[in-house]
Amino acid sequence: MMHQKIACAALLAQTALGLVPTRHLSRPRLAPVASMPEGLAAWGCDDLLWSQIPPGAKRDLTRFARDGVEDLARNRLQTMREVVSFVDAADDAPWEKGPWDTAVITWEADQAHQEAEAKARAKAEKAAAAKAKREAAAAAKAAAEAA
User: Which residues form the signal peptide (predicted)?
Assistant: First the structure.
């Protein structure tokens, strides 16, 4: 407890004296990406989708296009398309943080639900296969005993 107070006091003193770089005091805002980079259209991005995705995704996609990383760009575009489908706004509405965050939460819940359904389906298929195998073995045993 005492060391936390000392660290806090030291930080305040350094800040007051101007010894702490400003980049440590606040998170700098990154400049938004203005236009869709060349090459993204070929990977499945259009102007409407570009206007509906968050700045962080735009920066990632710009980097992927610059570096020629098509598989990551296509995966990110698919995810963005899926999340956009959950945004509760007009189809041509630009990106907004509130509706986007809600859509991401809804998309994650939907993904978890789909995974749970897939696991349940796989479990049911495995149980049905095991039952069919047991029944076939029992039928073969009964046929062998009858002969």
Answer: 1-18
Evaluate whether 99 touches 88 at the Cβ level (below 8 Å): yes
Dist. CA 9–CA 24, nearest whole Å: 16
> Can you give the residue ranges of every domain in the chain?
1-30, 36-146
Tokens of 24: 């440590």
Residues 61 and 104 sit within 8 Å (Cβ to Cβ): no
CA atoms within 13 A on the CB side of 24: 8
Rg (CA), the chain: 28
pLDDT digits (tens, 9 = 90+) for 86-137: 988 787 788 889 999 999 999 999 999 999 999 999 999 999 999 999 999 9
